[in-house]
Amino acid sequence: MSTDTPTARFERKTSFDAASPTLIEGLPGLGMVASIAVDQITTQLDLEHHGSIQSEALPSVAAFADGRVRDMVRVYAGEDPPVMTLQSDIPIPPNAAESLSRTVHQDLAEEFDRAVFLAGAPAESEEQLGEVVGVATSDETEQELRDAGIDLAEESGSIGGITGALLADCYAHDVPASVLIVRCDPRLPDPNAAQSVIENALEPLVDFDIDTSELEEQAQEIQRRKQQIAKQLQQLRQQQQEEGETLQSRAMYQ
Q1: Is residue 158 part of a domain?
Q2: Are 75 and 52 in contact (CB under 8 A)?
Q3: Residue 249 pLDDT level (bands cut at 50, 70, 90)
Q4: Domain coverage including residue 52
Q5: pTM of the predicted model as reported, rounded to 2 decimal places
Q6: Under 8 Å CB-to-CB from 115, ≥6 apart: which residues?
Q7: Number of domain units in the chain
Q8: Which of 19-23, 56-60, 232-236 comes out lowest in average pLDDT?
Q9: Contact of 229 with 104, CB cutoff 8 Å
Q10: Domain of 245: which CATH number?
Q11: What are the residues facing 99 on neighbouring strands?
Q12: CB–CB of 73/56 below 8 Å?
């Protein structure tokens, strides 16, 4: 490995010993669907801050919530139901994706039995908003998607950014994983798409019960809270385009 390659590490804060836990990824992406959905899951299930991922590739900024500074990229966990979540207060820069994904595989994968990733895709019509399809890494995860009533994606495509890196690492190392692709509004944070992916895909797939009424009732407030992160994500995309590497050339979903 080059000495110039960014590194990352997982700093564990609590012990975690649960039967067959599922890791749900909620990192910022198109429509902020993953971030909104997993925020709701973490809060509803009262998950404990299990640890944080630190990387020299992350921006030198301080994140805070409820009057307290906190780590930017965090892992939460709970034993009933057995769930882990991966969340961030900032978009993951492209140069940090490889090291963060490697850290999840090397330091966390032995703590969960399977992973579920979330990717936003632009809705081409109002009727498409909230539609969910799945992509599996194995026969086992394909059957889990089918058993949960989730249609498999029929078209070919690719998934970029940190979500794509995580999914590719799981596939390469035989970690059971699937990705839920959610049609959403690409212009604004989309709480309704987040509500759809929880109710129509995550609840039957992970077998838990999440009250999503808040996502509908407080949609405008949730959009306001996530708007700054969405703007930062758009700035990253514009920077990539200026450097001649468009998202369209790299991935369909992110």
Answers
A1: yes
A2: yes
A3: very low
A4: 8-250
A5: 0.89
A6: 22, 23, 24, 25, 166, 170, 175, 176, 177, 178
A7: 1
A8: 232-236
A9: no
A10: 3.40.50.10900
A11: none
A12: no
